[in-house]
Every structure is written in C-alpha cells, then in structure tokens.
Amino acid sequence: MGSPVGQTGGVTGDVVDLGQKFELISEHWSPKLVATLNDYEVKLVKVQGEFVWHTHEDTDELFLVVEGQLTIQMRDRDVVLGAGQLFVVPRGVEHCPRADAEVKALLLEPSGVVNTGDAGGDLTAVVEAI
Amino acid sequence: MGSPVGQTGGVTGDVVDLGQKFELISEHWSPKLVATLNDYEVKLVKVQGEFVWHTHEDTDELFLVVEGQLTIQMRDRDVVLGAGQLFVVPRGVEHCPRADAEVKALLLEPSGVVNTGDAGGDLTAVVEAI
Q1: Angstrom distance (rounded) from CA B102 to CA A27
Q2: Which of A1, A123, B25, B105, CA to CA, is 20 to 30 A from A113?
C-alpha cells in the first residue's frame, strides 16, 4: 500500500477479461501479470505437467482454478482443485503443482514473488504484463 | 505479512468451492470471508440493486464477477463487468456498484476494510467467515 492516492490500481485501469487474457498465453508455467492491487499482483498462468517443489518462506500464495484440474502436492497431502475452486498455500509450506492436462489458473501473491520460490532453476519466470 | 511462518493461509486451510460458498449466502451486499492471504481477505458477495457511493482512501479494491453483470459506477465513467471479468477500483476513487439482476462476485482487499468505506450507513456489514 505504498503508492499514492489516485494511482491506478490495475495494470491499465481497464476491465480484465480472463478468457481474453488466457488466449494471449501460450507458454506453460509462465505467469503473466493482469492486475495489481496495492502491492499485490494478480497473475494468470497456464500449466501442464509437474512444476518443481519449492517454498515461499515469506508469503501465502493463492491458486484459483479457472479451467481444468490442478493438483497441489504438499509433503503431507495433495489438494485437488477444479474450476471455480481456490486454495491458499500457507507460507513456508513446500508444494509442487501438477496438472495432467492443461490448467488455466489465477494466482495472487505480493509483488516480486518468484514463481519457483527457494528452488530456482529453469522454470523461474520473469513476469510480464499482458 | 505479519503472521508467523507456518500459520495457515486459508480460513480453514481447505479447498474453497466458490459455488458451494455462494449457496450459503442469502443476503445482498453482505460480503462473507472465504480465505485469507497474508493480511488480505478473499470475500464472496451477492449483490442486487444499487449500493452507496463511497471511497476507500487507503486501498485499491478488486471485483471479480463470477455470475451476472455488475456495473461499477465512478464519477467519470461506468465499468461493466460480466462473468470472468475483473476490475480494480483504485484507492481514493469514489464508486458505487449497481446490479439490475443478482450478481455473484469475489472481492479482494486488505483485512479490515469496511464495505461502505467513508460513507457508513445501514449497508455497512460485519464480515463473517463461511
């Protein structure tokens, strides 16, 4: 909440149509920024296959599935999300998303959070706005 | 982000099914808490009719329409959102949501934000978790 009064909240200040935005995404595991809310970012991502096990030590992370079925593997259990279902991975909890078929999801987390958390590696994405 | 490592991120730590949660809501203009993400709250609300003009001086506010058509009136323009569309009302911008027919929407904002902002009045809601 460090921005001045009157600064636009969204990336463009326009309506964000999730379906239209997803059409602009081709790559898997590469979240795209579609809106900001104070110092938080709303991102859209298409995923398929298995990500990497990683942890965000300093923040919770919200997943909302828009289409498909996403499994969020944790060390003590799996959570399976279908369209219209959301889950918050608590900070400090190691997790690894997996999707047997392509999933469209909305992510919410503070600005600057790295998708691979503490794990790094090839799947680390630079987040661009779309 | 003031809570300790390991604190659960969600209200219950469970999957939140938006459809099931909306079935628990009968009152209009009374947001219900379904998840927390650090110091932010994810709320669901059913709305119909016109709200009150109000401003949140210190925070942006995100509206994601799940079902129906929501008009967010601002002093310089209206924004119309359908299902699968989101908009961020920037901090300090006076607005008044309106829905001719019932709308189901997801709201995202920092914990403790009052729904009627600076306006107060009868529509001010105490947010309960569902």
Answers
A1: 37
A2: B105
Provide the token pair at A111: 């600005």
Residues in chain B within 8 Å Cβ distance of A33: none
Pair B71, B80: CB distance under 8 Å: yes
Tokens 């809501």, located at residue: B25
Positive or negative CA dihedral for B66, B69, B72, B76? positive
Give chain B positions within 8 Å (CB) of A92. Answer: 5-6
Q: How many residues are listed for chain A in this entry?
A: 130
Which chain A residues touch B38 with a CB distance below 8 Å? 59-60, 91, 110
DSSP string over chain A: --SPTT--SSSSSS-EEHHHHHHT--SBT--EEEEEETTEEEEEEEEEEE---B--TT--EEEEEEES-EEEEESS-EEEE-TTEEEEEPTT--EEEEEEEEEEEEEEEETT--TTTT--STT----EE-
> What is the β-pairing status of strands B85-89 and B78-81?
unpaired
CB atoms B87 and A15 under 8 Å: yes
Which among B7, B14, B88 is the nearest to A37, CB-wise?
B88
Considering the entire predicted model, what is its pTM?
0.89
Find the Cα–Cα–Cα–Cα dihedral B78, B19, A33, A45, rounded to 10°.
Answer: -150
List chain B pLDDT tens, one digit each, 130 residues.
333 333 344 455 799 999 999 999 999 999 999 999 999 999 999 999 999 999 999 999 999 999 999 999 999 999 999 999 999 999 999 999 999 999 999 999 999 888 999 999 988 988 899 9
